[in-house]
């Protein structure tokens, strides 16, 4: 998750005259949605993979590619989302498109499935869940205060943070791709 970058994207989607109270509601609804989505994926995500006959390593490669594309767009500054329906309420936009797919997209889905697959037991799953929930809380507070952050950082500061996060996401993407390709190659060559 890139809360500062996502906050900038979300502010461009939401009403330009959004109040502090309205953005609090949007931040809460978005965070609630991504936490529910996390638990749905961690509980039923592997089942969905089995139903479609997908290998976790194929998902690693695909998830890595999606993350890589997202990282490249973060680095190049090409993240643009527009809402064509001006009549939508800000709270409706909190779920779609802000929570899903902007915050909780295929890259995050893939990351959760991969981390769950690599978990050794309940303690690892609990650690993943706690780490995700802590990230969601951080996301909530940053998104809730994004109007202030936008004023403080300015456009240049937001661009720098987004590009740095893009580098980190890109490195994670490369790790996923290499790990998945190597494991798939080994399984097909044996």
From TrEMBL:
Segments crossing the lipid bilayer: 30-49, 61-81, 93-115, 121-143, 164-185
Keyword tags: Cell membrane, Membrane, Transmembrane, Transmembrane helix
Main localization, broad class: membrane
Pfam families referenced in this protein's UniProt entry, alphabetically: MarC
Localization per record: Cell membrane
Membrane topology note: Multi-pass membrane protein
Alphabetized NCBIfam families for the sequence: NAAT family transporter
Family: Belongs to the UPF0056 (MarC) family.
Protein name: UPF0056 membrane protein
């Amino acid at each position: 998750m890139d809360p500062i970058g996502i906050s900038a994207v979300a502010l461009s989607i939401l009403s330009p005259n959004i109040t502090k109270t309205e953005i609090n509601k949007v931040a809460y609804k978005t965070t609630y949605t991504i936490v529910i989505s996390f638990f749905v994926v961690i509980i039923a995500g592997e089942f969905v993979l089995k139903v479609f006959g997908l290998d976790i390593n194929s998902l690693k490669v695909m998830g890595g590619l999606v993350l890589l594309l997202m990282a490249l767009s973060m680095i190049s500054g090409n993240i643009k989302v527009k809402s064509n329906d001006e009549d939508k309420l800000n709270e409706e936009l909190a779920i779609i498109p802000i929570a899903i797919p902007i915050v909780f997209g295929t890259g995050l889905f893939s990351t959760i499935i991969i981390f769950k697959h690599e978990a050794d037991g309940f303690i690892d799953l609990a650690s993943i869940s706690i780490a995700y929930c802590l990230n969601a809380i951080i996301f909530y507070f940053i998104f809730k205060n994004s109007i202030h952050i936008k004023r403080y950082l300015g456009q240049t500061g937001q661009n720098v943070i987004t590009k740095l996060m893009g580098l980190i996401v890109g490195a994670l993407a490369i790790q996923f791709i290499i790990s998945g390709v190597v494991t798939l190659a080994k399984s097909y060559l044996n």
